Protein backbone atom coordinates (compact mmCIF):
# COMPACT_ATOMS: atom_id res chain seq x y z
CA UNK A 1 0.00 0.00 0.00
CA UNK A 2 1.43 3.35 -1.04
CA UNK A 3 1.44 5.94 1.69
CA UNK A 4 1.16 9.59 0.86
CA UNK A 5 3.28 12.08 2.69
CA UNK A 6 1.54 14.80 4.67
CA UNK A 7 3.51 17.41 2.70
CA UNK A 8 1.62 16.40 -0.49
CA UNK A 9 -1.76 17.33 1.03
CA UNK A 10 -2.58 20.90 1.96
CA UNK A 11 -4.53 21.27 5.20
CA UNK A 12 -6.17 24.22 6.82
CA UNK A 13 -7.83 24.78 10.17
CA UNK A 14 -11.38 23.48 10.43
CA UNK A 15 -13.59 26.39 11.52
CA UNK A 16 -16.67 24.21 11.90
CA UNK A 17 -17.99 23.16 15.33
CA UNK A 18 -17.72 19.43 14.46
CA UNK A 19 -14.27 18.01 13.59
CA UNK A 20 -13.66 16.27 10.28
CA UNK A 21 -13.22 12.65 11.45
CA UNK A 22 -15.23 10.90 8.75
CA UNK A 23 -12.32 8.54 7.99
CA UNK A 24 -12.28 7.20 11.54
CA UNK A 25 -15.95 6.30 11.87
CA UNK A 26 -19.49 7.54 11.51
CA UNK A 27 -22.20 9.07 13.65
CA UNK A 28 -25.44 7.18 14.21
CA UNK A 29 -27.15 10.47 15.01
CA UNK A 30 -26.01 14.00 14.18
CA UNK A 31 -24.51 16.11 16.95
CA UNK A 32 -26.45 19.23 17.96
CA UNK A 33 -25.76 22.28 15.82
CA UNK A 34 -26.30 25.94 16.67
CA UNK A 35 -29.03 27.83 14.87
CA UNK A 36 -27.16 30.12 12.49
CA UNK A 37 -29.17 33.04 11.11
CA UNK A 38 -26.53 34.66 8.89
CA UNK A 39 -24.48 32.35 6.61
CA UNK A 40 -21.70 34.96 6.37
CA UNK A 41 -20.90 34.73 10.09
CA UNK A 42 -19.03 31.98 11.89
CA UNK A 43 -21.08 29.46 13.83
CA UNK A 44 -19.82 30.89 17.13
CA UNK A 45 -20.75 34.53 16.43
CA UNK A 46 -23.76 35.81 18.30
CA UNK A 47 -24.20 32.95 20.77
CA UNK A 48 -23.45 32.95 24.48
CA UNK A 49 -20.17 31.50 25.80
CA UNK A 50 -22.03 28.62 27.48
CA UNK A 51 -23.72 27.65 24.21
CA UNK A 52 -20.40 27.94 22.38
CA UNK A 53 -18.78 25.47 24.81
CA UNK A 54 -21.79 23.15 24.47
CA UNK A 55 -21.80 23.04 20.66
CA UNK A 56 -18.02 22.98 20.06
CA UNK A 57 -16.57 19.47 19.77
CA UNK A 58 -12.90 18.66 20.10
CA UNK A 59 -11.32 15.65 18.42
CA UNK A 60 -11.42 13.71 21.68
CA UNK A 61 -15.00 14.60 22.58
CA UNK A 62 -16.22 13.79 19.06
CA UNK A 63 -14.49 10.39 19.14
CA UNK A 64 -15.94 9.58 22.57
CA UNK A 65 -19.49 10.61 21.70
CA UNK A 66 -22.04 7.90 22.49
CA UNK A 67 -23.37 7.84 18.93
CA UNK A 68 -19.94 7.64 17.20
CA UNK A 69 -18.87 4.22 15.90
CA UNK A 70 -15.21 3.70 15.03
CA UNK A 71 -14.36 1.83 11.82
CA UNK A 72 -10.57 1.54 11.99
CA UNK A 73 -8.22 -0.44 14.20
CA UNK A 74 -7.99 1.93 17.19
CA UNK A 75 -5.27 0.93 19.70
CA UNK A 76 -6.76 0.05 23.10
CA UNK A 77 -3.66 -0.66 25.20
CA UNK A 78 0.15 -0.46 25.09
CA UNK A 79 0.46 -3.75 23.16
CA UNK A 80 -1.76 -2.40 20.38
CA UNK A 81 0.34 0.78 20.25
CA UNK A 82 3.57 -1.21 19.97
CA UNK A 83 2.14 -3.48 17.27
CA UNK A 84 0.89 -0.52 15.22
CA UNK A 85 4.22 1.30 15.41
CA UNK A 86 6.63 1.58 12.49
CA UNK A 87 9.61 0.13 14.38
CA UNK A 88 11.26 -2.88 12.74
CA UNK A 89 13.69 -4.75 14.99
CA UNK A 90 15.55 -6.27 12.03
CA UNK A 91 16.36 -2.92 10.43
CA UNK A 92 16.62 -0.52 13.37
CA UNK A 93 18.58 -1.94 16.25
CA UNK A 94 19.19 -0.11 19.56
CA UNK A 95 16.61 2.64 19.10
CA UNK A 96 15.47 4.77 22.01
CA UNK A 97 12.33 3.98 24.00
CA UNK A 98 10.41 6.84 22.43
CA UNK A 99 11.40 5.87 18.87
CA UNK A 100 10.05 2.32 19.25
CA UNK A 101 6.43 3.42 19.67
CA UNK A 102 6.28 6.16 16.99
CA UNK A 103 3.10 5.86 14.94
CA UNK A 104 2.61 6.61 11.22
CA UNK A 105 0.93 9.97 11.92
CA UNK A 106 3.88 11.18 13.96
CA UNK A 107 6.33 10.20 11.23
CA UNK A 108 4.41 12.18 8.62
CA UNK A 109 2.36 9.53 6.81
CA UNK A 110 -1.34 9.92 6.06
CA UNK A 111 -3.64 7.50 7.87
CA UNK A 112 -7.28 7.38 8.87
CA UNK A 113 -6.60 9.18 12.20
CA UNK A 114 -6.33 12.93 12.64
CA UNK A 115 -3.95 14.61 15.06
CA UNK A 116 -5.34 18.13 14.56
CA UNK A 117 -8.72 19.59 13.74
CA UNK A 118 -7.97 20.33 10.09
CA UNK A 119 -9.63 19.74 6.76
CA UNK A 120 -7.91 18.57 3.58
CA UNK A 121 -7.69 20.80 0.54
CA UNK A 122 -7.45 19.12 -2.83
CA UNK A 123 -4.68 20.60 -4.99
CA UNK A 124 -5.80 22.70 -7.93
CA UNK A 125 -5.32 21.26 -11.37
CA UNK A 126 -2.92 23.39 -13.37
CA UNK A 127 -4.26 24.23 -16.83
CA UNK A 128 -1.31 25.79 -18.68
CA UNK A 129 -3.20 27.52 -21.50
CA UNK A 130 -6.34 28.23 -19.43
CA UNK A 131 -8.46 25.73 -21.34
CA UNK A 132 -9.17 22.06 -20.63
CA UNK A 133 -7.21 19.40 -22.45
CA UNK A 134 -9.21 17.36 -24.95
CA UNK A 135 -7.67 14.00 -25.77
CA UNK A 136 -8.62 12.78 -29.24
CA UNK A 137 -7.47 10.10 -31.58
CA UNK A 138 -8.59 7.01 -33.39
CA UNK A 139 -11.41 4.99 -31.92
CA UNK A 140 -10.10 1.77 -33.45
CA UNK A 141 -6.67 0.82 -34.72
CA UNK A 142 -6.93 -0.47 -38.31
CA UNK A 143 -5.16 -3.69 -39.14
CA UNK A 144 -2.00 -3.31 -41.28
CA UNK A 145 -2.88 -6.62 -42.98
CA UNK A 146 -5.94 -5.14 -44.65
CA UNK A 147 -5.61 -4.94 -48.45
CA UNK A 148 -7.14 -1.48 -48.57
CA UNK A 149 -4.37 -0.07 -46.36
CA UNK A 150 -1.43 -1.47 -48.34
CA UNK A 151 0.42 0.54 -50.95
CA UNK A 152 -1.31 -0.69 -54.05
CA UNK A 153 -1.64 0.41 -57.63
CA UNK A 154 -4.89 1.35 -59.35
CA UNK A 155 -5.15 -2.03 -61.15
CA UNK A 156 -4.75 -4.29 -58.11
CA UNK A 157 -7.97 -6.06 -57.05
CA UNK A 158 -9.25 -5.15 -53.58
CA UNK A 159 -9.66 -8.69 -52.27
CA UNK A 160 -8.16 -10.55 -49.37
CA UNK A 161 -4.70 -11.93 -50.08
CA UNK A 162 -4.68 -15.64 -50.76
CA UNK A 163 -7.09 -17.78 -52.76
CA UNK A 164 -9.86 -16.10 -54.73
CA UNK A 165 -12.34 -17.10 -57.44
CA UNK A 166 -11.83 -16.17 -61.03
CA UNK A 167 -14.49 -13.96 -62.47
CA UNK A 168 -14.89 -15.99 -65.64
CA UNK A 169 -15.35 -19.63 -64.60
CA UNK A 170 -15.29 -19.52 -60.76
CA UNK A 171 -12.14 -21.67 -60.31
CA UNK A 172 -9.77 -21.00 -57.41
CA UNK A 173 -6.37 -19.53 -58.03
CA UNK A 174 -3.55 -18.06 -55.94
CA UNK A 175 -2.13 -14.74 -57.06
Individual helix count = 5
- Percent of residues in helices: 10-25%
Q: Please state the structural category.
A: little secondary structure
Biggest sheet details: 2 strands, antiparallel
Low-confidence stretches: none
List the secondary-structure elements in sequence, H or E.
Answer: EEHHEHHHEEE
Q: Report how far the terminal alpha carbons are from each other.
A: 59 Å
- Rg from Cα: 33 Å
- Give the overall pLDDT as a whole number: 76
- Biggest sheet, spatial arrangement of strands: 1-4
Query: Per the principal axes of the C-alpha atoms, what is the gross shape?
Result: extended
- How many DSSP-defined strands? 6
Query: Strand-residue fraction?
Result: 5-15%
Give a written overview of the molecule.
This protein has 175 residues and is largely without helices or strands. Helix content is 15%, strand content 11%. The protein has five helices and six strands. It has helices at 49-55, 59-63, 78-83, 97-100, 104-107, and strands at 10-13, 25-27, 68-70, 118-121, 163-165, 172-174. It has a two-stranded antiparallel ribbon with strand order 1-4. It has a two-stranded antiparallel ribbon with strand order 2-3. Strand 5 and strand 6 form a beta hairpin. The mean pLDDT is 76.
